[in-house]
Amino acid sequence: MIYDLLEYFKDETEAERLAVDSYLMKNGLYFIYKDGRMQEPIRVTKDFINATDDHKWLKTADYLSCVASTNKCFDAPKKAFHNNNYFTLFFKCKTLVVDNNKSELFDSLRNLFYQKMRDKLLSKEFSTFGKLAKVDEVNVELLSHVQETFAQEIESVLQKVIELEGSDNEYIKLFFYHDINLYKQESKRYFYPYIFNNNDHNINLDGKTVGLSPANIAMNIKKPFMMHVTSNYYVPFRITLEDALRTKQLFEFLGNQRQKREYKGKEETYNLNEGVLDVRKTGSINRLVPVKEVRLVTSNLHYLHLERGTDIVIDEYEFLPGIDETVPKFRPINYLKLKHYDDADISSIHLFEEQVNKYLYEFKLKGNYKADSKDIKGLPKEFKSLLIYSRKAMENFFIKKDNRAVSHMVDELTQKIVKEKVGREENLSFYLTAVSLNMRLALLEYFSKGENELGSIVKDMWETIREKLIGDEPIPEFNSDQEYYFATGQLVRYLLIQSRADKPTHGLVESCLNARNDKRLKQEILKLYRKYNHAISLNYQKFNKLFSMVEGYNPDSEHVDADLFLSGLCMSNLLMEKKAEEEGQE
């Protein structure tokens, strides 16, 4: 994975451009010493940068001058100063200012920092890595000059910080204006000794120093279990110094990816944790593209998901060759003839996802692909379990267009979702159940490539039963178990409609649906009939005919056909069709 991604960071200039362009400067006051004096400060905030002509130079210099982490500050364990070279001095406002006066500790902390930095830069370790980095010897004279210059300017900086009311945790950053290439040189001098995860595992291979990658792996005295103790090599993954530096820039680039969105009428910026690196014909990349923005053009994509903590970790990666947003046509046919249902053909994976998210998952799928289960709230327990069980398969299909898992589970999964919704319907429209069943039938046909024709059977069943009920035959017979179970769904729905309760219980519906055999199903229907027969006219011939047909039929299969039963339950009820007119004539 690392080497695949590093292909786009091999060019040193391009890698630096990507890292710098995405770099986010910290809130604070930025001072540049130029032309023999300290320039007016540039204030950087989350929403505003008081930019000057020197802004591009400043952003690059700032990026190049930050420490790898506060644990690797020159003055650790004090950690008062956070710059990695002698051209700069970075510290928090509270280090300099206390009660609108200069801190009594500032000068001693600064002197300690310069002493430790000088010792470190001139150490054997830094000298060795400096030769590997091919940087010049430390310019001690220039170091001393910059140190003296900043010492002379600190009083004017102090007054400016007080005047601008710098807050305790804002950064104060001082820059000595110089050729940016010298900043790059000093950045290499600092990072080469720190670039590997742990220098204890460095080895020389074919004249090059290789060591433990700084990204996506941690191996130290606290994590000895990462070591390959039974093999000839202890370290799981080594890379060269140059690749380690490019890896650092890659993860900085990824970690700084942001996305804007509208939230409560305002535009806000948030961390982008998922997306693709879209590799066009140029072979270059510019940003991590949100999955939903990948459109039409066939591309080779690197899919990434980032885990943000102390460090950025790629916790999911996959190369997706030749992928685009098109899919074989999906037809969400309105099998149950519902009044409010979008049944337009779909050839876009994103629109496909929208339909499934809407009708099967009640808009709870898309925002919860990666959510921690404890953070998914407000859902019924069983529905939440089904969501968590299926979301990875759905993500693989809708994000990566890998249909293997969803094809395998779609039948069992969608039936469980439909059954779960029956038990929490709030009225007798059975809308949640109906739209989910419609989607189930469409998905079964789609993933079976047309071999599963259950949807077509359901679609024609309503008219088949209707013809039997309005025909001249006194008590017609069912031609199949499918007709029988569809008719039982119609009958149960009609009996429930006779209830005068505001919210009639659906417990009996579930009792019918979960009946072990046909004998038990008929017993449940008889219970419903005894409970609500007072509301049914003795002369209502269509009801009498359907009830007799159901009671007189013995299916070949003892197992209740849930799909046909629920289809009958959810479709327009035949016994309600022109009921008042028929009773009036009789």
Main beta-sheet strand count, sense and barrel state: 5 strands, mixed
Give the tally of β-strands.
Answer: 17
Count of separate DSSP helical elements: 20
Structural class by helix and strand composition: alpha+beta
Q: If you compute it from the alpha carbons, what radius of gyration comes out, rounded to the nearest whole angstrom?
A: 35 Å
Shape: elongated
Q: Kindly report the average pLDDT value.
A: 87
- Residue windows where pLDDT falls under 50 for at least 5 positions: none
Terminal-residue CA separation:
77 Å
**Approximate helicity band:** 40-55%
The fraction of residues assigned to DSSP E strands is 5-15%
Short description:
The chain is α+β, with helices and mostly antiparallel strands and 586 residues long. It has 20 helices and 17 strands.
Question: Explain this structure to me?
Answer:
The chain has 586 residues and is an alpha+beta fold. Helix content is 45%, strand content 15%. The protein contains 20 helices and 17 strands. Strands 1, 2, 3, 4 and 7 form a 5-stranded mixed beta sheet that branches. It has a 3-stranded antiparallel beta sheet with strand order 8-9-10. A 3-stranded antiparallel beta sheet has the order 13-14-15. A hairpin with a 2-residue loop joins strand 5 and strand 6 (101-102). The longest helix has 24 residues, at 140-163. The chain is elongated, with a radius of gyration of 35 Å. The termini are far apart.
